[in-house]
Amino acid sequence: MIPQQVSQSPARLNASANGLFVEACERVLTAGCAIAPRGLPTTEVLGSSLRLADPRNRLVDLPPCRVINPAFNVAEALWILSGSGEPWIHEFNSSLAAFVGDGAPHGAYGPRLRAWTGIDQFDRVRRLLLEDPDTRRAVLTIFDPARDLVDERDIPCTLGHRFYLRDGLLHMVTSMRSQDVWRGLPYDLFTATLLLELMAGWVGAQVGHWHHEVDSLHLYTPEHEPARQATLLHGAVSVPMEPLTVSWESFDDVLAQVIAGQRIGVPAWDDLADVMRAFRLWRRGDRDAAREIAGESGTMSKALTRWFDRQTARAAAKAAAT
Fold first, then answer.
1. pLDDT tens digits for 102-121?
2. Residue 291 pLDDT > 60, yes or no?
3. Is 152 left (phi over 0), alpha (psi -120 to 50) or beta?
4. What is the mean pLDDT of residues 251-276?
5. What domains appear along the chain, each with residue ranges and CATH number?
6. CB-count burial class (<10 Å; 0-12, 13-18, 19+) for 16
7. What is the distance in angstroms between the CA of the first residue and the CA of the last residue of the chain?
8. Greater pLDDT, 314 or 139
9. Rounded mean pLDDT of 76-86?
């Protein structure tokens, strides 16, 4: 039996989410070993470290190989940051139920981060960093042995996040027991780096690097070929988002408004609100209104317009084939 390979090379400092995603695909395809957890053929590398230099450059966008649903990207991030565990997230990803069931997800990160036995971990970490900028105790915990060492299909892959404030830069380390490169990394990256940017604003720091430490970095066999195609797109640099800062005191109110699709007068937040509103209209069949709202100039709104175009083209091709 060939032993599992463990990544020993130093992490590359990627300039963009696209670069980090391509690196992850390359690493698994070139150094991975075959496993089959739950009977699913998988290629895995144990012990990987990925680094992103500009966490605001957080959108994985590699057409035609990897085109994510930007509305789910935004919705999931807001869902987690707001502390919600409610099933409204299913509205933005109809395939989610196959992985977590159709109710409130057992492994929802939000309630663990914002109300762990009554503790808002965001606030605790924020205060720690303000009180002791050199602290090594600024830890957000997600995995809960009392709840997760059970036979459930929806177990958090993310163990937690750690923050280090050094030389005016706030760096963040995310630890994951398991990372599906193709289906999960683009969305996990988006949420984690958004949290880093917000925390940096709350403690008066500049945004540093995002470090992603993964025990099992893997690709399922059906994603091997599209992942190989993605590795050919080395030069595709994603577009940074506008600054997304907000005061701690108004954070929850802003999230509630943006989740509802209401603009607040700040370009970056209005971009996210437009995405939420436009996608809901699209799902309800009001395609013209959805396109009009998504036609604004924001990074995520532009990405959603491209996703609308892709869905329209697919529907047309399917209709032509029948």
1. 666 788 999 999 999 999 99
2. yes
3. beta
4. 97
5. 13-70+129-241 (3.30.572.10), 245-322 (no CATH)
6. buried
7. 48
8. 139
9. 96
pLDDT the model gives residue 315: 86
User: Tokens in use for 105?
Assistant: 């997800």
| Token pair in block for residue 120 | 């808002």
pLDDT at 3 over 50: no
AA identity, residue 223: E
The tokens describing 145, both together, are 């042995």
Model confidence pLDDT, tens digit, residues 304-314: 999 999 999 88
